Amino acid sequence: MNEDFNMSKKYWQVSAGSEGRDRGYEKFFLRHGMAFVGLAYEAMQQIDVGNIVLLKRGSSEIVTAGEVVQRNGVHRGEGDKEWLQDFDGWDLSAYCYVDWRVPPKKPLLTKGLAQPAITRAWKSEHHDLADSLLSQPVQAFEPEPEPTNPITDDQILEFMISQGLRPSAADELTNTVRKIRLLANYYCNECEWEDIREHETRIFLVAPLLLALGWAEQQMKIELPCSAGRIDVACFLRPSQRKKEDCVLLMETKDFGSGLDYAPEQARRYATDFPNCQVLVVTNGWCYKTFLRNKANNLFHEQPHAYLNLLKPRDRYPLDPQRTKGALSVMESLLPSSLR
Fold first, then answer.
1. Quick one: pLDDT at residue 172?
2. Phi and psi based region of residue 50 (left: phi greater than 0; alpha: psi -120 to 50; beta: remaining)
């Protein structure tokens, strides 16, 4: 029986998110010297200064390990950081501070890591791997993101009208957003997220928003074939001529619980067939990221231009407010009149 119950030092293992989100979480764990989770609040409350945390990927990789430390007199908390309450749609409010040590080359391979988001690590081989990393230098970390501000529906409407939305369409947009929120809240609170597949998000959440913003059905093509596969949604300026050179917006839709970190790469591959496409959009139906074309090299920026959570619209991206705009900029990018 290969277990170590040495109570003088506690070891924990934490997952950096579910499939499709984990690499993005890892980046922020290391960037800010933290570990954070969503529903596993009780486990996080048991973590103390000096405990060792292993950041795992799947059941066989240890990405990094570190020691829980105090900063500004505290070592953990819950619900007091606004940016963790909208982590691309997820609420990851429980956190602790960690001085991470990163392997010099690749993640450490092992086996038998448990599945929960955060739990005690009991096996001695996992302890040994974590201890082997503690001799590495502490990973430098950046300050946490600065606070952002909520955006009201009235602010959205006033801005959209100033950008070309017909005033007579304001009621339709308001009612559509309200219906989308009702359904998205139902999915959030009453359903298993993995059961809400991308076809449902595209039909019930995404398409109604595009129509309310002024796109006609004749201007949209669903699952459009291209050299790299099939584009989920393509929007064209002229409904009668849905030619490649007339496509101005491409959208990659994901299932309801997916992260948005990998979808841009897929969308960029599609965009090579559409030289006049101006905006790439990735969405899981309630969170949106937009990417603009770089005029200098005609490629799409790696950095998102803007972020929108329809349930919690804010003026900037909570995870990167200094570089990424918020709800109003996403809505502007989705407006047909802004792409003419």
1. 93
2. left
